[in-house]
Amino acid sequence: MKKINIKRYLLLVLTGCFLLSCSDDTLDKINKNPNAPTNVPISLLLPQATISTIVGIAGERSGEYASFFVEHATNVHLNPRLPYDINNNVWTRVYATLKDLRTIINKGSVGGSEEGQFEAVGVAKILYAYTLSVGTDFFGSMPHSQALLGSSNRAPTFDDQESIYAYLQTILDEAIADLNKESIVAVSPIDLIFKGDTEMWEKTAYALKARFYNRLSNLNAETSATNALDALSNAFKSESEGFVFDGYLSGTTNDNPWNAWQKREDTYAVSATFIDLLKEINDPDFEDPRAEMWFTKIEGEFVGAPAGQSVSDLTHTIYSAPTDYVLFDAAPQPLITYDEMKFIEAEAYFRKGDMTKANAAYEEAVLTACRRSGITEGDITAYVSQGEVFPGEGNLSLEHIINQKYISFWMFQSIEAYNDYRRTGIPQMNDPGGTPFRLAYPPSEVSRNPNTPSNINDITIYEIPVWWQLQ
Amino acid sequence: MLSKYAVFGFLMQVLFFNLMLAENANGQKNVSVKEVEIALHVENLTISKLFKEIERKTKFRFSVDQLELKSELKNKVTFLDQKIKVSDVLIEVSKQSGIMFKQVNNNINVRKIDHEQNEQIEALQILQMEVEVTGKVTDENGEGLPGASVVVKGTSVGTTTDLNGNYKLSVPEQSILTISFVGYKTSELLVDTQSVIDVQMELDAEELETVVITAFGIEKQKKSLSYSVQEVEGKRLSSVGNTNLVNSIQGKVAGVTVKQSSGAPGSRSQITIRGSRSFTGNNEPLYVIDGLPIASGGRIIDINPNDIKSVNVLKGPTAAALYGLRASNGVIIIETKKGENAMHGKPAISFETSYNFDRVSRFPDTQMTYGQGTDGQFNAFSPHSWGARIDQMGTYTNQLGEQEVAAVYDNDKDLFKTGKTLNSNLTISNTFDRGNYAINIGIADQSGTLKNTGLQRNNVKFAGGYSLSDKLKVNTSMSYANNVVNSAVVPWWATFSVPASYNLKGNPTHVPGEPYRQINYRGSHDNFYWALDNNSDVEKTSRTFGSISFDYKPLDWITIKYLIGLDEYTTISDVVNELGSSAGRTNPPSGGSISNSMSNQKQINSNLSATLSKKIGEDINIDLMIGNETYDIRSNRISSTGSDIVIGGFHHISNTGVQSTGTGSTNRRVVGFFSNLSVSWKNSLFLNASGRNDIVSNMPSQNRSFFYPSVGASVVFTEFLSIPENVLTFGKFRASVAEVGQAGPTHSTETVFVSGNAAGSFNFPYQGLSAFTQSNQLNSSDLQPENTRTYELGVDLRFLDNRIGLDYTYYDTKANGQIYSVPIAVSTGFSSELRNAGEMSIQGHEITLNIKPVETTTLLWDVAVNFSTYTNKVLSLAEGIEELQLGQGFRVSAVALVGEQFPALKGIGYARDPESGEVVVDGRQNLPNGSVNPFYGMPLRTTGQINLGTSKPDFEINIFNSFSFKNFSFSAQLDWLQGGVLSSGYTRLGRLYGVLSETENREEDYVFPGKKGYYSGGELIVEGDNEIIIKRGYDFYGRNQDPINESNMFSGTYVRLREVKLSYDFPGKWLENTFLGSVSFYLVGRNLWLNSALPHFDPEMFNTSSGESYNSYPQNKSFGGGIRVNF
To answer: Could you tell me if A92 and B831 are in contact, meaning their C-beta atoms sit under 8 angstroms apart?
Structure first.
């Protein structure tokens, strides 16, 4: 009898162990991903989204592509104008960044799992506006109101650029409101740009508003100028203010990725268009003092690479390249500067016909840009004393403003120079193959989203302008 | 971990144990003095009289040396017992008189104990006398029957008949001999005292069937199976000098495709059975060793081919259904060598050693006329060979600034040496009363054809079985493997593309005194010799796997089995790219990297089953099995990588400038319940049904449990027809249908956030902050299990008294609702979504043919032919998705295309005239802008990527011939693979660089065959036949042809002499007076001859998922020999 009992007991234990081994709880535990979390707090998402915006959206590859388009630079690798996979690269980065930013906004807003983190929400909305603007400026219409919904909408429709531009102003207004709300947690520990100075973030929001209003100059010259000037009154007030990331470090882990990319691929040579423009503005025997600081010399000369010509020069023995003074491990990445504010102001007053205010803003913009480049006050004085640089109130033209703005954007803000070029047609581009007006939608979107406009392709990007462009 | 000494000690113990057992193993069938009792009532009787008394009362007879025992025999003894054992009497006598007894059969030898010589001697020894029986086993016609088994009933003592049907065996008197042979009725004969027993065997159609191992080790009559199973004997897999088991299987089983990646030691090969069912997932079969499923994939290289008794391939899901979702790609069941077939009681020791030489199977044909440079001019830094004629270069300034006299160098062949493989195996096996064991020790030592490459593997295995009682048996199998693989880290093209004018071997590899400043003829690549000396890739694996199983038979119709086993391995990988490697070759040297990683996998299996077998009436047999299988697989990986080496020659991660680490682990558990019902009627009609329900951790909880069934039937129709056996001996139809479920990848039911290094090269943590970003793969908690359904039909025919056997199988598989990463529009926030979508179908035919053209007593000729062909079509992917990228090659991509064969290769093709299909060359002398057209007369290309064909072959045929004549045997295997395309990245580079022989004709006039024309507004205009004369220089090969991927696409067709083996068995009479049991000697060759549609390179080195390979090492041909000795 005893023996049988033991057997029964054993059977019971075995059955018990066995049932435990396949209970849902046990299997759920086994299936829990040990390598990656399924939910992370805002404090881990915002640093990533910030760096993504700075590196992936404003700098590195997208910045480099824009500099080829706007002939700040010439690609001296394989394809001179449309580097491999560029549209896919920008498209992917824009949506990946927007997705993380939207997660932060949802988490920190009312009803979210970290409700009340309004400072972080405000910052995220500003970065969102910046990222979305780069996306729409490159691609025109794009999925937005139905985007980022995962499998709930596998074929989002494309929103036109007009509605996206309206949304940019809306989200920036929301950001300003959020920044003024009582936040349960300060953004300072995770704010990589202003270290929690929400006033600066607010000014950044207004600076972006001004930029986006001014972008619509071709649609309504007057309103765009009024709105831009209105926003500027709340934006950056001095040279010491600006939306600039200067947290890159020397070494190879936190260095400026654009610098790392250039070191690795060496595709960037200074464009002949840019070098020629500097020469053109100056008197024949005068050289822009910035050139010495910016460009390497080839046998004692600045040699620009002609746009659209496939000459491989990965060793930089034929054409000038950026100097180590400009492009180095810790080179800061400007996103919006005070000089841009002044250029916008000059342009807005110029459109309104207020030439005095236009000229004052223009001269302040040029001086600020020169100072930012690091040249001496003496050099600046000599430079601005030339007639083509400071033409005076009576002779000031849009060309003067945009040309100087174009120069000030070298080398890290080519995207905005490209936007200005498409908006104003200034300066003259020289690529015999033409300058693309936009990027084609990447093949991945074309093949996977049936709503992708079919009229945009590698050929029509040279013909079909974006909505706000000079027609 | 097992140390060398522990293994050695363990072996010593087992050997000792074995010798002790050898003694009593024979003592079983005696009439022993211990068993015989007599009544003895004697007083003061002399010993000699006592002996007479015992002789009178029993059958025992004493043999006494009267002289030696003269005094002892006179001693007197007294026994007053009613009943006493004879042995007790003898022991008492021994004590009193100092004499000893030795019983041999019914004789008892009496001797004096020599105390000086041996204190420990036993007073009474009982030995058994055996009689030697000889005889001849003949068939129904009186012809000798070779290979018949002659066994002493109830033991495993036995032998087989020789070529003439003769046998010789020592057996105990009164034992029964069981004589059996496939296809004949088994005879049983009593051995009385006769020494010659001849037997004539009777044919038996019932016994015609062989027994095969099916799922969970269940042995079934082959004729009862409703699906296809093919077996390969272990001896056909070993002794061909290949250290990789998978390569040895190649060509031996119809429907099994082996794709080798190269001949480098330790290189992985891919094995698929009946095509691919999954787009992006695993298409590898399950491996089961001695009943234990083990981790497969590339790690099958840990298995010692010499330890294998047999390999059974369960090809379709019907065969594998019981194994569950792991087996949806088929199962390879491996049985290792066991002791149960060893001669009873005596340890059988067998030793085999072989030595093989490897040479590169094929070098590209290179041109030796033109030297380094471009446009016919010498250039010391050019990677190309489009320079001046070497015989016209004279003295030139080389890249070091030195004056050099032009000469021709064969840089490629100089680099490769003869690889050597030493394989040694020792097997010790034994069977004793209640059990058996086998120990196998294998050592493989291979050096590759490149310096510092090689493989060292040590295997130790123990397998044993023991009957705890008549009802309970326990079996165990334990293996340990230690595997070290050294690989090269520079691709082969870095040598065959070296210009013939450059002295790669003769030039120093580095600047004198600066070992980390390389010298090379080109900028950004490593000097091959420097890299072989300085860079290394070492992978060390320790693996232990083993199981213990219990068979319990409480009643003769119930069997309960339980098996539990573990497979665990740890791989440590160290890769060093020394300071100064490739891009870092600056002054002072920089760069380099060191990466260390350790990965571990542990797999536990537990399997419990009960089988009930019942006979109903005379004709119906029913077998019902139910069971449970639980397995749990855990893996971990830790890696650290350091880049920017600080000091050359010191390979520790602390010696690097930037370090990063990574870890990852996966966990998975599956609990399965299964049942199988077999019913047979008159042993000629069979029905089989099975079902399995799996509960899987890596599925969402609501879809975690799923069921899949199989059902099959077979009928031996010859039982119902009266066809003469010498026409159609046997015929069977079979049909089956089965479903197998499949789960998704582990840890993928929820979308995750990943550590955020997504932004360019900016790395977190940064300023103490970590960062996460949401993964771009969307996971779903609604995943459903995949489903694969297969119909299989087959016929098995044997003609002319089994001289011809034909087995044909047709199968039709559809894999539904596949779980894979479906590409999704990036604007959704994700780039891929793991979900169920898509269908793939496979239809195939398999034929195996066995013929015995000659079968006489001295000469045997066997032919075995395998044929297989299949179509593997993508029926759908996901709505709106027509193409799925599987792997991105440099130019050509492997893709799944809806409606096309899987996998397809996509790339740029030649523009072709839609009417004639001929290639169209560019007929414009000038381009529209007026400049000269550099590609005038050269082919135009397609405007986009096109489908360039599938890499899947059309069919595969393997022909195996074996002859045996007296003591010689000879076998050869020929493999013929037809069709399929491959993209040769190496040919592309060889032409681009101007090194392959076809570029030698660069100065000759040439007209590209085809039409001429041009593109106008994207439309191809064809003008007529091409007659434009061109030169095929760099403009042609490098600029025009290079972007046209089709120019480097080749048919995958090849015919290859896979194996040749000649062996010689030493005649038994030569060994009669030695300690050797048998000796055989053999010579083998592998890959000795090749005829391939691919020029320059071996087609068996481009196995790649991306469709194109740039990292392959050469394939090898090998030859060698070995000797096998049984003691």
So the answer is: yes
Q: What tokens appear for B881 in the block? A: 């998705």
Distance (Å) of CA A216 to CA A212, A319, A335, B450: 7, 37, 20, 66
Is some CB atom of chain B closer than 8 A to the CB atom of A260? yes
Asked whether the beta carbons of residue A36 and residue B752 sit closer than 8 angstroms, the reply is yes
**How many CB pairs lie under 8 A apart between chains A and B?**
207
Average pLDDT over residues B449-463: 93
The arithmetic mean of pLDDT across residues B407-423, rounded, is 90
**B701 at the A interface (CB within 8 A)?**
yes
Predicted local confidence at residue B227, as pLDDT: 80
pLDDT at A190: 94
B697 contact A CB<8A: yes
pLDDT tens string B899-939: 999 889 998 899 999 999 999 999 999 887 777 888 999 99
For residues B657 and B686, is the Cβ–Cβ distance under 8 A?
A: no
Examine the pLDDT at B9 and tell me if it is beyond 50: no
Predicted complex ipTM exceeds 0.90? yes
Buried b (16+ CB within 10 A) or exposed e, B267-286: bbbbbbbbbbbbbbbebbbb
The CA dihedral of B19, B20, B25, B26, to the nearest 10 degrees, is: 80
Crossing angle for the helix pair A118-139 and A414-424, to the nearest 10 degrees: 50
Q: Cα separation of B967 and A251, whole Å?
A: 73
* CB-based contacts of B855, cutoff 8 Å, min separation 6: B803, B861
Question: Which of B216, B299, B312, B205 has its CA nearest to residue B256?
Answer: B312
B-chain CB neighbours of A49 within 8 Å are 773
The minimum CA-CA distance between B720 and chain A, rounded to whole Å, is 48
Residue B13: pLDDT band with limits 50, 70, 90? very low
Residues sharing a CB contact under 8 Å with residue B719, sequence separation 6 or more, in sequence order: B682, B684
Asked whether B858 and B163 are in contact (CB, 8 A), the reply is yes
Q: How far apart are CA B2 and CA B480, in angstroms?
A: 8
Nearest CA in chain B to A60: B760
- Which residues of chain A have a CB within 8 Å of the CB of B743? none
β-pairing, B419-432 vs B37-46, is unpaired
Residue A132 banded pLDDT, cuts 50, 70, 90: very high
- Supply the Cα-derived Rg of chain B in whole angstroms: 36
Q: Do B774 and A103 touch (CB under 8 A)?
A: yes
Residue of B nearest to A103 (CA): B774
Asked if A179 contacts A201 with a C-beta cutoff of 8 angstroms, the reply is yes
The set of long-range contacts for B98-103, using a CB threshold of 8 Å and a minimum separation of 24, is B98/B72, B99/B47, B99/B69, B99/B72, B100/B124, B100/B125, B101/B33, B101/B125, B102/B126, B102/B127, B103/B30, B103/B32, B103/B33, B103/B60, B103/B127
- Does A266 contact chain B (CB < 8 Å)? no
Q: Does B760 contact A61 at a Cβ distance shorter than 8 Å?
A: yes
State the pLDDT confidence band at B851, using cuts at 50, 70 and 90: very high
What's the 3-state SS for B54-113? HHHHCCCEEEECCCCCCCHHHCEEEEEEEEEEHHHHHHHHHHHHCEEEEEECCEEEEEEC
Q: Which residue of B has its CA nearest to A158?
A: B827
Nearest by CB to residue B664, choosing from A35, A100, A448, is A35
B786 in Cβ contact with B818 (< 8 Å): yes
Contact B414, B449 (CB under 8 A): no
What pTM does this model have?
0.79
CB B495 within 8 A of CB B449: no
**Distances from the Cα of B75 to the Cα of A163, B95, B99, angstroms:** 128, 12, 11
Annotate B586-632 with three-state secondary structure: CCCCCCCEEEEEEEEEEEEEEEEEEEEEEEECCCEEEEEEEEEEEEE
